[in-house]
Amino acid sequence: MARVPVSMRMLLPRRRIDLRRALTHDLPLKLTAVFVAVLFWIAAGVNTAPVEVTQPFGGRVPVERPVVPPGYVLDATLGDVGVTLRGLQGAVSNVVAADLHASLDMTAADLHRSDPQEVPVQVTVADPNVKMVEVSPATLTVRIEPLTARTTAVQVRLANDPPQGTFAGDAAIAPGEVRVSGAQSKVARIAAVYATVRFGDSVTDLTQSVQPVAVDAAAATIDGLTIDPAVVQVTVPVLPTATTRTVPVLPTLRGAVASGYWITRITLDPPAATVRGEAAVLIGVDHLDAVAVDVSGLTVDRTFQVPVLVPVGASLLRATAATITVAVSPLVGTRGFPIVAVGAINLGSGLLAEIEPPTIGLVLAGSVPALAGVTASQVTATVDAAGHGPGSYAVEVAVHVPTDATAQSVQPTRVTLTIRTR
After folding, report:
1. In angstroms, how far is CA 362 from the centroid of its own chain?
2. DSSP collapsed to 3 states, 88-154
3. Class of the domain covering 146-330
4. How far apart are CA 298 and CA 327, in angstroms?
């Protein structure tokens, strides 16, 4: 084809693009294609089901301390647990530690058991779309005991010696007594409550605010107790001599109280004594022992007057005899009678009675010595048939127990009484 000169190209008309025609050409076909594509896109989205996963949570969940019924205390190291979750991928991945709460299921705990028991752990998730699959460990070992308290005198214990050339005078404590509360078994172990103070290098009277600590007969600290007030003020004079020293006096017990009883309180007067002697002798004296008192078989409170033992080479600055008072109370417990026959009373003449079930279970509460003396014949259960003729009736069970015990639990409380003619 011959090339058109430039001058002639300028004279030729230019081709115009018709956009309207391009869009409307085969318009029904184009709309049908778009509609089919949209249908395929919607079907693909509907057929893609959400993915549900089961996976462990990436951290540990601390077990929160539960609310214990009034009159009881929980003794346990709660720690934390691991959990496994189930739900949609996105929901499970979005769970954070703040969404998980672990606690003990106290409804499953037996408040009448003082020995260790296993209590289930419950874990809740804030997101209702996420479910809890597994808790590890599923239970924790705890001890639930009755809460008790006693008032105990505070004794001063010196952590070190005063500066060289001085001695500690009689200590003053304000207040002189504190109230110690906690689990019954721990309170029973208290032999003394100490306020420990430490001397500095300066020769001045010592005044400190101290947290008193309860200890057992071996002078080991008893944890898990509440002491009120939590702080006492201790003042110890520092006197210029090296020939005397004031130290606490410790009670010493021998034997065991009667079975079914426990020591609720031990008081000692005076709680401290001042000894005199050579510095070489006194440096090894950090306390004085009272002569041991025998508590074997005690069932009531008793007061003893005993001497204070002094090391060889030392003597008491003032003649001192220790007054030791031992308070004793019966232990409180429960005793089960799982099979107690139920009898009918006030049954009309010429009638026979059948009871279903024929026996009930009964749990008595009271002091341990009293419960130990209860015999099966002293525990009875009856239903009153007065005014009832032949037929079947749902009636209440009446239990009869000794006056020094109470019926804590009766199962069942109602039985079926069927009366027939002879």
Report:
1. 28
2. EHHHHHCCCHHHEEEEECHHHCCCCCCCCEEEEEEEEECCCCCEEEEEECCEEEEEEEEEEEEEEEE
3. mainly beta
4. 9
CA–CA dist 247, 270 (Å, integer)? 11
Per CATH, 146-330 and 332-421 having the same topology is answered yes
CATH topology assigned to domain 332-421: RNA Polymerase Alpha Subunit; Chain A, domain 2 (2.170.120)
- Nearest Cα to 92, choosing from 58, 135, 134? 58
Helix boundaries (H) for 239-295: 279-282
CA nearest to 210, candidates 190, 223, 227: 227
Evaluate the CA torsion angle 166, 170, 175, 176 in order and state its sign.
Answer: positive
Beta sheet of 414-421, edge-to-edge order: 351-356, 414-421, 391-396
- Per-residue model confidence as pLDDT tens for the chain (422 residues): 445 455 544 544 555 555 566 556 666 776 777 777 777 666 555 455 578 899 999 899 999 989 888 888 888 888 999 999 999 988 998 999 999 999 999 888 888 887 899 999 999 999 999 999 999 999 999 988 889 999 999 999 999 988 877 778 888 999 999 999 998 889 999 999 999 999 888 778 889 999 999 999 999 999 989 999 999 999 998 876 657 888 999 998 999 998 888 999 999 999 999 888 877 788 888 899 999 999 999 989 999 999 999 988 888 877 778 999 999 988 888 999 999 999 999 998 888 999 999 999 999 998 888 888 899 999 999 999 998 899 999 999 999 999 889 999 999 999 999 999 87
Q: 3-class secondary structure for 31-57?
A: HHHHHHHHHHHHHHHHHCCCCEEEEEC
Residues 6 or more apart whose CB falls under 8 angstroms from that of 74 comprise 65, 66, 68, 142, 143, 144
Quick check: helix, strand or coil at residue 421?
Answer: strand
Residue extents of the structural domains in the chain: 6-47, 56-145, 146-330, 332-421
One-letter amino acid for residue 331 of the chain: L
Are residues 322 and 306 in contact, defined by beta-carbon separation less than 8 angstroms? yes
CATH of domain 56-145: 2.170.120.30
289 backbone dihedrals φ, ψ, rounded to 5°: -100, 135
